[in-house]
Design a protein that fits this description.
By secondary structure, this protein is mostly helical. It has one domain. The protein contains four helices and no strands. The protein is globular.
Amino acid sequence: MLTYVLYSGLWGWHCKSSAIEKENCALRCVSAACYEKIYGDDPLEEGEIDFKRGREFQYCVRKESIGESITGKIHVDI
């Protein structure tokens, strides 16, 4: 379903404009709250690979999925 939403343009042209914009849209779709917390002030840019924030995002989504609070600082050692 996510692939259809991204490629159909239902989220607007910016989600189809580049590979990294699709990635940002997909992350927002998985968890808007975690996306805003981890990437909100500094979204991924073309060519950027950010393993640290990627792990923080995954951890945030896991916490959110089991009903734990995602407020406060999320720190994951790599």
